[in-house]
Amino acid sequence: MKSVNFNQLVLSLCLLAAVSCKKNSNKADQNSQIRELSEYLGEPIIVDLRGKVLGTNQQPIENAVVSVGDITTLTDSLGHFIITNVSAHENLLTINVTKKDYKTDLINLTPKDKTNTVTITLYKESELSIFWFNKNNHNLPHTSAK
Questions:
Q1: Contacts for 33-40 with beta carbons within 8 Å, 24 or more apart?
Q2: Integer CA distances (angstroms), 76 to 51, 110, 111, in order
Q3: What pTM, to 2 d.p., does this model score?
Q4: 6: left (phi over 0), alpha (psi -120 to 50) or beta
Q5: 29 vs 37, 39, 43, 96, CA distance in Å?
Q6: Which helix (H) or strand (E) holds 78?
Q7: Distance of alpha carbon 33 from its chain centroid, rounded?
Q8: CATH number of this structure's domain 44-122
């Protein structure tokens, strides 16, 4: 009796799974979406990227990890980095910068030339951003500025 109920349950679940699987027959919509995305991004291009990574005090940050796609490098003692032959799109180049004790920064930019130059500012983990309330500039109830 238990095996009959178990078999019925398994059969019911299989039928439910088969019925709920929906074949995506609209390939034209998928192709259209891919075309729209590639039109937005632009054509694939190869560019060079150079720049520097600074702290909020405008001091260079040494050994920050700068990544573009699968290419990664470290900044030198002056905060400078160079990455060559980066795959990008005409309208989008994404740069990821990390350093211990600093907030990770993800920058999206539009490449302007074959060689693009950027300056990136990293914020320490402990530094407040403009989105945090400061004891001297908020109007929250039951609080007071000191």
A1: 40/91
A2: 11, 25, 23
A3: 0.63
A4: alpha
A5: 12, 15, 21, 32
A6: none
A7: 21
A8: 2.60.40.1120
Rounded Cα distance, 134 and 47, in Å? 41
pLDDT (tens digit per residue) in 73-98: 999 999 999 999 999 988 899 999 99
Retrieve residue 106's tokens.
Answer: 């993800």
φ, ψ dihedrals at 42, nearest 5°: 90, 180
DSSP, collapsed to helix, strand or coil, labels residue 71 as strand
CB 128 within 8 A of CB 114: no
Please tell me what DSSP assigns to residue 60: B
Confidence class for position 126, pLDDT limits 50, 70, 90? confident
